[in-house]
Amino acid sequence: MLKTRFTEAFGIEYPIAQGGMQWVGKAHLVAAVANAGALGFLTALTQPSPEELANEIQRTKDLTDKPFGVNLTVFPTINAPDYNAYANVIIDAGIKIVETAGTPAVAEQWAMFKAAGVKIIHKCTSVRHALSAERKGVDAISIDGFECAGHPGEDDIPGLILIPAAANKLKIPMLASGGFADGRGLVAALALGADGINMGTRFCVTQEAQIAESFKQQMVENDERATNLIFRTMHNTARVMKNAVSDEVVKIERAGGAQFSDIQHLVAGKRGQDAMQAGDTDGGIWSAGMVQGLIDDVPTVKQLVDRIVAEAEDIIESRLQSMIARYAEAAE
Question: Which domains does the chain have, with CATH numbers?
Answer without folding.
Answer: 5-204 (3.20.20.70), 213-290 (no CATH)
